[in-house]
Amino acid sequence: MKAFIHDNFLLSNDTAIKLYHDHAVKMPIIDYHCHLNPKEIAEDRKFGNLTQIWLNGDHYKWRAMRANGIEEKFISGHAGDYEKFQKWAETVPYTLRNPLYHWTHFELKRYFDIDTLCNPDTAKTIWEQANEKLSSKEYSARGIIKKMNVEVLCTTDDPVDTLEHHQKIKRDQFPVRVLPTWRPDKAMAIESPSDYNKYIEKLEQASGISIHTFDSLIEALYKRHQFFHDHGCRLSDHGLDTFYAEKYSREEIKNIFIKVRHDKMPDPEDILKFKSSLLYELAVMDHEKNWTQQFHVGAMRNNNTAMFQQIGPDTGFDSIGDRSVATSMSRFLDRLNLEKKLTKTILYNLNPRDNELYATMSGNFQDDSIPCKIQWGSAWWFLDQKNGMENQINILSNMGLLSRFVGMITDSRSFLSYPRHEYFRRILCNLTGKDIEAGEVPDDMTLSGKMIEDISYNNAKNYFLL
Question: pLDDT (tens digit, 9 = 90+) per residue, 186-201?
Fold first, then answer.
């Protein structure tokens, strides 16, 4: 029987097959946004079994298991690793037409050369075959990254991070460049004064600056921003529910900050003003150093209060939000552009309702400094599946320049997520091949092949200057 994940998987025509195998497959990966743990890379972690590398912390799989009625102890709880894997294998057949079915078998194939469909009957065999390979050195954290032809990966790091693990990775002369990304979300989160002040104490320790005023907050963040820059950081990232661009005065922001530092709850209007002010200041820092700023916008997080209290954030209880974004995003970008402080920017939306909005907004602030300075980012989180990727590619083609697109990211905490780049490239090649065979794009493999190679690798290489 033909393997499910075969050489021409998702490639439905001869031109797509040629585009993929002659152009896409050879390109290295620049993973410019992920959530891999730099400590595990620095220590070159070896994973004890398939559950440790595949299921632990993977909220995509956790959500599917919960939907399948699996008891929480087999998901995030204290059940044994093999028991957890068995429950995942029990769930996999029910993920048909969910991207998890594709990803699961891509990952088994690409990392472990396993063609067997995952289900309760095959669980033991898959477990044993994968674990045998995981025991070898080439399946350590660094070995896996090299195996997947990764050239650069950018982790996601808080301003208070020491970056000691990045420093060790560099000292060890690991051939893959592992760079930090500045993620200052906690510096904006004044809606919980108690938690915020605990964070400010950490920022004080990291920066060596006593933070009692808004000006000293900016000074401390600026110092840490320079520290990140000195250690190779060239990208920032913000996880926002919407953009913030309220009108405010400097005096208002100073008073709001002092109020919060005295553990007093700010008014809702003050929260919006403070976030607007700090988001602007952070964007100015990025512009000064020619970084790329990324905005992941639209998640509605931690919806299940009971489970949040039990197991914390980032555990599979987030969903798509529906907050209005167009006006505030326009005001934010327009102010920076007017003041000539708008750096390279990537905009990611989570609500598919906003696809055309983001595609057209990115076109409003282009200039001659670099092609497609403002990018509409790849399909993200709940949208990084076949339908979501196709929609993003088609809409960007209609309303922007697909040929200048900087391509795919993993946005993942898992070392086994790199086939998402292959998944994206196959989908891109299939769409392009269909257009060529329909006569809607010239049958010029040099022209289309260059576009595939550029989107897969070259555009990111040139855009980020990594």
Answer: 999 999 999 999 999 9
Residue identified by tokens 């979501």 is 388
**CB under 8 Å to 355, separation ≥6 — which residues?**
349, 391, 392, 395
pTM: 0.97
- Dump the DSSP string for 305-316: HHHHHHH-SSSS
Strands 299-300 vs 319-320: parallel, antiparallel or unpaired: antiparallel
Residue found under tokens 């600056």: 209
Partnered with residue 67 across adjacent β-strands are none
**What's the pLDDT at 466?**
82
| Fold classified for 47-137 | uronate isomerase, domain 2, chain A (1.10.2020)
Angle at 9 between CA 379 and CA 451, to 5 degrees: 55
* Runs of H (alpha helix) within 187-318: 193-207, 214-230, 250-261, 268-288, 305-311
Sheet holding 29-31, edge to edge: 29-31, 150-154, 177-179
**Chain segment 280-327, per-residue pLDDT in tens:** 999 999 999 999 999 999 999 999 999 999 999 989 999 999 999 999
Distance CA(423)–CA(368), nearest Å, equals 32
Q: What span, in angstroms and rounded, lies between the C-alpha atoms of 267 and 325?
A: 21
CATH for 14-46+138-464 (3.20.20.140, 2.160.20.10, 3.40.50.150, 3.40.50.720): 3.20.20.140
Structure tokens at 279: 């988001």
Are 404 and 363 a contacting pair, CB within 8 Å? Answer: no
